[in-house]
Every structure is written in C-alpha cells, then in structure tokens.
Amino acid sequence: MCHSKLNILSQNHEAGSNRVSNLTLACHSCNQKKCNQTADEFGYPHVQKLAKLPLKDASAVNATRWKLYQTLQSFCIPIEIGTGGRTKYNRAIQNYPKTHWLDAVCVGESGQMVFVSPNYQPLVIKAVGRGNRQMTKPDKYDFPRATRQRKKVYFGFQTGDMAKAIVTSGKKEGIYVGKVAIRASGSFNITTTTDTIQGINHRFFKTIHKSDGYNYMKGERALLPMLKGMGIRA
Known about the structure:
The protein is of the alpha+beta class. The protein contains 5 helices and 13 strands. The chain has 3 domains: 6-50, no CATH class; 59-121, no CATH class; 136-217, SH3 type barrels.
C-alpha cells in the first residue's frame, strides 16, 4: 500500500475492531479501494496476520496501573490521575516547552495552573547500581591480572561516592566534582561530567554524597516564557 497522505485502515471488515493491532496506515485511495475487504482479501496476507497478535503486554501494563491506583486509594491519601492528552493540553495552554520534567508538572487537573520559575533546574537521577560481582580484573587479553579487593572502604571513601577534590598545587591543580574510584594506596580517580582525572591523593577529597546506587546531576534549565496572570506560585 502506498503511504502518501496516510489514513488509518482497518485490516478486517468495515465493522471490525478498532484495537491497535487491527489498524494500519494507508493512503486515501487505497483505503477507498479496499472498501470492506480484509487485508488478506485485498492482497496483503502478511498484514492480516498482525491483526491476530495478542496485546498481552498492554493488558499487563493496564492491569498493573489500575491495581496500583486502587491500592494507593486505600491509604486515603490525596491522589489524582490524568491522561497524556490532558498533560499535553495543560502544557500547551501555559506555553511551556516540551520536556519530561515539565510534563510531570502539568499532569492531571492540578497541572492546569502551575507556576514554574525560569530559574528552576531539574535534578536528574539515574540508577547505576552498586558495582559488580566480578571476582578479578582482566588484562586486554581477558586473562586475570589482579584479584578483587575484599575491602570496600579506604580512607573513609568507597568507589561510587560523590566527592569534591580541591587540589592546591601541581599539574592537577584545580577543583573537581564527580564520582570517586578508590585504591588501597590512597591515590584515587575522580570522574567528572567531562573527564576522568587519575592519581589524586585522598587528602584532597571531601565527601558530597555517599554511594547509594544512583547518579545525581543537574539537568538543563528550560527556556520558560514569562507569563502574567497565569498559574500559581508553588
């Protein structure tokens, strides 16, 4: 079927189901020519087979989200739900740009009048785990080159801790903020948002946040319009 000026085309007869797996894309002329034939009768048996695929994954998600909603209601706490269409409408009428965090602000009935300062900056949290179970470190040929240290903490630091290193002299002089990789020798590495600096003595480090399996960083500020008379200040 050609794909210019796409329309929704039912794979079954005209009175067939409107479920997602029973719909495909077709141009207006193909849609009219097909009339009430099935996709198989129209000469596309491979498309017809798609109409019979079960939507078990979508069913599982729907059942889970409604069960979650009902369970939360049982705690008698304020809770509301909303659709993606409502979220988009709320964001559009308030003239906010499309970002994940602004979508979260505009969800549901409470998201129809919100105030977001241009100075707001989202905190991006990413699950990174707590390390691995690798028993030895391999060389470039994948042969063991060192045994895994049983001790996780040296000089009060653990690999994965967020820290600030203030180096006051030498070739590595400067201020670095990022994740620490420790060594028993006390010579640590620190990975910032742009680079990895190796071989900094532990005495230059100060802990910002202990490793908890997540990575935290500030996201970019959205270019928000200055609106008058719209929204409420949170």
